[in-house]
Design brief:
single chain; 145 residues; alpha+beta; eight-stranded mixed β-sheet; 3 helices; globular
Length: 145
């Protein structure tokens, strides 16, 4: 599989575990989905810890907890044509590459990356996410092997 270096703004295919699934005792995500890498940090052991935000078609109940992806960005990434949002109120954290990366459907089966969010849009997403973290309105599910 073609596993790129994780960089902020990279959109990957991942088996995302929602906070509600985790709280119900699940250890695996029920659905593979695009997710945006919001942070990638190398630790002192040389491992890379990644934080990803899920992308969903479900419109947010609270608009402050998600950012809609512009249609042009979705098209450039090769995503579908339905409206989609990057959820800012929760994230998955894992060691890269991790067992939950998935190949992109109907594409080269060796790749897990759709591409990058445009820098200006990514900066907007990151700023909104950081604001939710600072106000303690964002949650994190730490994934293990």
């Amino acid at each position: 599989m073609n596993i790129p270096r994780p960089e902020p703004g990279l959109v990957i295919r991942y088996s995302y575990l929602w906070l509600s699934e985790y709280q119900a005792g699940q250890e695996e995500g029920a659905k593979d989905r695009p997710c945006a890498v919001i942070l990638a940090l190398d630790d002192e052991d040389g491992e890379t810890r990644v934080l990803v935000l899920p992308i969903t078609h479900t419109s947010p109940a609270d608009p402050s907890t998600a950012v809609e992806i512009p249609p042009q960005t979705k098209q450039r990434l090769g995503l579908d044509f339905e409206r989609s949002w990057i959820v800012l109120s929760e994230a998955n954290e894992f060691f890269w590459p991790g067992a939950d990366l998935r190949p992109i459907p109907n594409a080269d089966p060796s790749t897990i990356a759709y591409g990058f969010l445009p820098p200006r849009f990514f900066n907007h997403v990151r700023e909104r996410f950081v604001a939710l973290v600072k106000s303690r309105k964002a949650n994190r599910v730490t994934r293990t092997e």
